[in-house]
Amino acid sequence: MKTALRFTALLMLVAFLAACARDVREEPPAPEPPPPPPAPVEVDRLDPRDFTDARNLDNPDSLLSQRTIYFEFDRSNVRAQFMPIVDAHAAFIRANPSARVILEGHTDERGSREYNLGLGERRGTSVQDLLVASGVPARQIEVVSFGKERPVCRESNEDCWQRNRRTEIVYTAR
Amino acid sequence: MFLNEKSILSSATTASAWRGLLVLALLALPLLAPAQLRIEIVDGVEGAMPIAVVPFAWESEMPQPASGVADIISANLRRSGLFEPMAQAQMVERPTRPPEVRFGTWRLLQVDHLVIGRVLDAPDGVGQEIEYHLLDVHSGRILLSQALPVAPGDLRFGAHRVSDAIYEALIGIPGAFATRIAYVVVTDIGGTDELFELVVADADGYNPQTVVRNTQPLLSPAWSPDGRRLAYVSFATGRSNVIVQDLFTGQTDIVSSSRGINGAPAFSPDGRRLAVSLSAGGSPDIWVIDLENGRRQQLTHHWSINTEPAWSTDGQRIFFTSDRAGRPQIHVMNADGSNLERVTFEGRFNARPSIGMEDRFLAVIHSDGDNDFRIAIYDRENDRLRVLSNGRLDESPSFAPNGSMVLYAARENGRGVLAAVSADGRIRQRLVASEGDVREPAWSPIIR
Questions:
Q1: Cβ pair B283:A7 closer than 8 A
Q2: Rounded to an integer, what is the distance from CA B293 to the centroid of its chain?
Q3: Which among B85, B147, B88, B136 has a CA at the least distance from the CA of B114?
Q4: Is residue A17 classed as helix, strand or coil in its secondary structure?
Q5: What is the CATH number of the domain that holds A85?
């Protein structure tokens, strides 16, 4: 009984800490824009292809809402199908000098942990290189590799592994 | 307080230090004692040596602990896979001093060796003394007699030291019972959140103590040569940092927090330097940090991944993993970075070397393809690589300080477990925790 209480207390504290931690990683949704003037000539409609608009980061119709780039086994080159996502974020970060991103590199569970830290960093760095090549100032980007320590999927099969081999674009400021 | 101090103190000499450590841990989060590992023998050797460890006479004023010295010694010897200790119920006589031994009885019982002894209060009144004798049943000779002083509360570790001496007398190499193991336990705490705990326990799984816990990853624990400090990698800040923590005082130093990867710490054999892998230069390279003055020296300069350094026994060379040839393989260089050469050639993947038997053996993670990662021992003398484990995702090999066993992490039904295999592959153990994912084992040096 006492143990159960203690464990519950631990869980609550941990949940609280985790909640705090999460706040750092993911900003809450952008505040609603101020109400339009009473007699608008044009309605402020959100264009999902306007990659400079922060609201599109949370718009499921916009490429900006996609923040994960997946990789092949033991590879770190960004495949062509993911280039539009990288380009969209490059446009956003260029247009928003206050924006800051962490590129989190992740791997699947195969191979040693420390080698995977290196591999995860390569995946983060190859996205960074593309952003910088398209004009994003390097000071707005940081690469952090988590190797295989933070899988999104825990099973030992290719389906799971390919979801874990990824770079996540995490905005710490918009 | 939740603490049962008796269960916490593995050694009275370190008691106050452990208490300091626990206070620190309590400040962070309420303390739950980590689950204890239970060690099971999967395979032993044919014809393990029959031995009888007779219950020791308790001639001390102190209260007698639940598990006796003889129980601990028997369990240690059995776990090694090389001995077959007799059950106490079969012991028709219970001598505690050499003159009481009737060798004929023990010959009839078909044991080769006999261990007898007494636990006494120390002559100076501080702590106790384990007086023990190892006898050869066939010749009737006393092979070993010793009175081992034991600090207050240190009886378990005293029994481990007696086990080490018996093992050495009969096997010919020092035992590795008076050691500890470090490992990481990961527990789901709801949603996608996990709790990472770095735990230190005695080598028989007893006295597990949490050294540090965090909701961000902890990995790569490494022991200092005196067994006092642990280096490890923590993501507590959201980025990798190399930490050195004193287990006695609880003091924690961030040794490296450069931009990029700070990983793979390994103490030099003199304990003064730490080899690490840092990517501040753009890709992971091996560096050596002087722990006294903080000076750093970069040893590799290559665009590839260079990580998992392991010092040679004399501290003159460093083995490490590098994929400069395309796939990860073990390389070696002098401790100043010169004379770099490739060591392993067999298989597609060889990584994370652990050194055994005075540099003759390298325990590595080995793979021929992309899907099965196993523990192998590379024998440098005979240029032979021998696969010792049969899992699919075996990793993190760590040699016992006497080179007898390799401890490693495996996955079993989707869960992380620890396993150990003897260097010749004949003896296998599983180390099972009641809950959580156990990984990243590191076997300590002999604790003096």
A1: no
A2: 29
A3: B136
A4: helix
A5: 3.30.1330.60
In which domain, by residue range, is B188 found? 180-443
Contact B393 A154 (CB under 8 A): no
User: Residue-wise pLDDT tens for chain B (448 aa)?
Assistant: 333 333 333 333 444 444 444 444 444 444 567 888 988 888 888 889 999 999 999 999 999 998 899 999 999 999 999 999 999 999 999 999 999 999 999 999 999 999 999 999 999 889 999 999 999 999 999 999 999 999 998 999 999 999 999 999 999 999 999 999 999 999 998 887 999 999 999 999 999 999 999 999 999 999 999 999 999 999 999 999 999 999 999 999 999 999 999 999 999 999 999 999 999 999 999 999 999 999 999 999 999 999 999 999 999 999 999 999 999 999 999 999 999 999 999 999 999 999 999 999 999 999 998 889 999 999 999 999 999 999 999 999 999 999 999 999 999 988 999 999 999 999 999 998 878 899 999 999 998 7
Q: Are residues B352 and B426 in the same domain?
A: yes
CA B319 to chain centre: 20
Test A146 with B277 for CB contact under 8 angstroms.
no
Phi, psi of B162 (to 5 degrees): -60, -45
Residue type, B121: D
The CA-CA-CA angle for residues B217, B221, B223, to 5°, reads 160
β pairing state of B349-356 and B361-367: antiparallel
Residue B187 token pair:
């527990």
ipTM of this predicted complex? 0.90
Residue in B32, B261, B395 nearest the CB of A112:
B395
Report the distance separating Cα B195 and Cα B215, nearest Å: 5
**Whole-number Å distance between alpha carbons of B21 and B213:** 12
When scoring A108, A112, A154, A155 by the number of chain B Cβ atoms within 10 A, the one with the most, hence best to mutate, is A112
- Domain of B64: which CATH number? 3.40.50.10070
Total count of domains within chain B = 2
Could you tell me the two tokens for B71? 């129980």
Residue of A nearest to B33 (CA): A3
Angle value at C-alpha B26, between B447 and B246, nearest 5 degrees: 30
Q: Residue A40 falls within a domain, yes or no?
A: no
d(CA B392, CA B395) in angstroms, rounded, equals 9
Q: Are B166 and B189 found together in one domain?
A: no
To the nearest whole Å, the CA of B389 is away from the closest chain A CA by 15
What is the residue range of A108's domain?
50-173
A75 in reach of chain B (CB within 8 A): no
* Burial bucket for residue B178 (CB in 10 Å: 0-12, 13-18, 19+): buried
Q: Which of B268, B272, B316, B276 is nearest to B291 (CA)?
A: B272
